[in-house]
Write a structure and sequence with these properties.
Layout: H1 2-37, H2 42-62, H3 65-82
Helix pairs in contact: 1-2, 1-3
Length: 91
């Protein structure tokens, strides 16, 4: 019975990790898109950054393992957002 319980805990941990990975990727992508669109208003940009840090603190208090997934997803979104875009070619 302990083997089954260990497998279930492992699968649940992986599901939480990948769920937070996708969630971090999505949140970061949406935040960076809104941040870029509000270039003229520093108040909105500050609100996005403060809200993100408040969310990060609240997440760190309640989830430890899945925070790594969130961090990986967030970092990947920042990396993908900063990549140069390929020029569109019309055939």
């Amino acid at each position: 019975m302990e083997v089954v319980q260990t497998i279930v805990f492992l699968l649940a941990g992986l599901a939480k990790f990948f769920g937070m990975f996708v969630f971090g990727l999505t949140i970061c992508w949406l935040m960076l898109d809104a941040y870029k669109k509000s270039e003229k208003s520093w108040q909105i940009q500050l609100t996005f950054v403060a809200g993100f840090f408040a969310f990060l603190i609240a997440t760190a208090m309640y989830t430890q393992v899945s925070l790594a997934g969130f961090g990986f997803g967030f970092g990947l979104a920042i990396f993908m957002w900063g990549m140069p875009k390929k020029p569109k070619t019309d055939d």
